[in-house]
Design brief:
The protein is globular, with a radius of gyration of 14 Å. The protein has a single domain, classed as Phosphatidylethanolamine-binding Protein (Alpha-Beta Complex), CATH 3.90.280.10. It has 143 residues and is mostly beta strands. The chain has a five-stranded antiparallel β-sheet, with helices on one face. The chain has a three-stranded antiparallel β-sheet with strand order 1-4-7, with no helix packed on it. A two-stranded antiparallel sheet has the order 2-3. The longest helix has 8 residues.
Length: 143
């Protein structure tokens, strides 16, 4: 399985458009080679370089397994809570230096059927032992 972002700039830099310095909307993502047996997809965007702990910027779940493109400013799929406990995408805005932003896509063998606004902790609990495969994409951004 593969995850790509067609909006990346040279050096896997996240385009300013998708950060606090731009429009602050979520970037588009392309999905390839979803494994057989996948019932749904889960996607999370994390900042492992955040000062206190890993920061959750975006969480989508119950994405149908036949989806191959997540649109810019996506609103069609269930969105979870970010680290500020808000539902939806929170744009990168590192307080200092360059941070990595890790997008991880999971193919799972069931639909989670959680209501919108679940936390990543809850999503992880429900998808435990159901992950068929995962793919990762790492981007960077510096204010």
């Amino acid at each position: 399985m593969e995850l790509e972002c067609p909006a990346l700039e040279r050096g896997n830099r996240l385009s300013v458009k998708y950060t606090c310095k731009g429009e602050g909307i979520s970037p588009p993502l392309r999905i390839k080679n979803v494994p057989e047996g996948a019932e749904s997809l889960v996607m999370v965007m994390l900042d492992p370089d955040a000062p206190l702990k890993t920061f959750i910027h975006w969480l989508l779940y119950d994405i149908p397994s036949d989806v191959r493109y997540i649109e810019e400013d996506e609103k069609r799929y269930k969105q979870g809570r970010n680290s500020l406990y808000r539902i939806g995408y929170f744009p990168p805005c590192p307080p200092w230096g360059e941070h990595r932003y890790v997008f991880t896509l999971y193919a799972i063998d069931k639909k989670l059927d959680l209501e919108e606004g679940a936390t990543f902790r809850r999503v992880k609990k429900y998808m435990k032992n159901h992950i068929i495969q995962s793919a990762e994409l790492v981007t960077v951004f510096k204010k």
